[in-house]
Amino acid sequence: MTRLHNELDLDAYWLPFTANRAFKANPRLIVSASGTRCRTDDGRELLDGMSGLWCCNAGHSHPRIVEAIRRQAAELDYAMAFQLGHPTAFRLAERLAAMAPADLNAVFFTNSGSESVDTALKIALAYHHARGESSRTRFVGRERGYHGAGFGGTSVGGIGNNRKAFGAHLPDVVHLPQTHDLEHQAFSRGQPTWGAHLADELERIVAVNHPSTIAAVIVEPFAGSAGVLVPPVGYLERLREITTRHGILLIFDEVITAFGRLGTAFAAQRFGTVPDIVTVAKGITGGAVPMGAVLVRDEVREAIVDAARDPIEFFHGYTYSGHPLASAAAMAALDVYEEEGLFDRARRLEGVLEDALHGLADKRNVVDIRNIGLAGAVELRPRNGAPGARGGEAFGAAFDRGVLVRATGDIIAVAPPLVALEEEVETIASVLGGALDDLD
Ligand SMILES: Cc1ncc(COP(=O)(O)O)c(C=O)c1O
Questions:
Q1: Cα distance between residue 215 and residue 104, in whole Å
Q2: Residue 310 main-chain phi, psi, to 5 deg
Q3: Which of 293, 316, 339 is the last residue of a domain?
Q4: Is the domain of 287 the same as that of 409?
Q5: Residue with CA closest to ligand 1 atom 12
Q6: Lowest mean pLDDT, pick from 5-14, 90-99, 117-126, 353-362
Q7: Strand partners of residue 372
Q8: By percentage, how much of the chain surpasses pLDDT 90?
Q9: Which of 312, 339, 366 is the last residue before a domain boundary?
Q10: Which of 114, 119, 155, 218 best tests ligand 1's pocket when mutated (most atoms within 8 Å of CB)?
């Protein structure tokens, strides 16, 4: 078969978070996908070990989701998002609130994880402003955190490469230490037992800056983009306790963790810790249409909306907030998750993935393997003078052998769709193992 890219001019498209020159010298194109499989332009089938990019939790092109989008596009393509609404967005909001723990009952729609994070940060500021505590403007993020590519998310994020070229960020951001430690946690299965004390650094930050200056702490329940950094036992609980004591809002960025990745609707349920604000995206539509949302506890919404003096209580929103196609796709994705029992399925597959990945412990250059829910990572020793090279080569070797994984530097992450078969989960790990054998 002729490779499609020979007929394409690859020049104009500037790919995001991609080595563009390397990609264009050796392009990899996906032309179709179904279930757990993707097909390349040269006709090869790949097993998707990354759920697209942590988003296709129900597999690709699920017929139910495809049909819902098709029907919605024919019935109502768009309705003005400000001062008007449409029924599907209201139904979806009600459903998300019912799925969420505690009183996370208010739902603000966005179009991506980045927009959800920026929205959540603004809600936190607006909350304190509404309560007469306008001095609370400081945010606390975490080293190695990823919160999207907006200026807000980049500021609270803790990945140096994402920040280095962009000068000033949000003022007043402080970062907690990251929670991963090779010496104390390497090869942990599930949550490491060492490291809850790292949350106590928040007490120091609060003491140095004074609680009256801090608006919110934002963390991913487990850090996905930085390479599946699993929270130590007790860590999130401790963050919750310290933030509550000091009147600081706690934001969980659940863009990766919500909708079954951890075997529950939200990571908050898995970890038994309820934050004040939750950001979601990705799995909300199963990846088929861009959408994000921010879920907010009653008290926060009441302070901003119910107590407002302005008729418009919160001057923020997007043309496509609650877009009809995205709302329809999300309703269908939630149906699929529920009817096919996919969150329980993820929980059942967790042990399969854990055993399969940890079976790679003796491979050359492996310095750590970790996992939680239906996500895991294999960390490789960086090659002398060429950090990231081994990870990139492992990604390429796995791709050539028919499995899609993701490389973040020298860490290989996997996150199979929740519909994957046990054998497919095992294949992802064994093919990755074969790929590692190819590397020096
Ligand atoms: C935790 C987290 N927050 C935010 C984002 C940004 O989402 P998006 O790329 O949809 O803007 C991501 C993306 O991977 C993420 O993992």
A1: 18
A2: -70, 145
A3: 339
A4: no
A5: 148
A6: 5-14
A7: 375
A8: 95
A9: 339
A10: 114
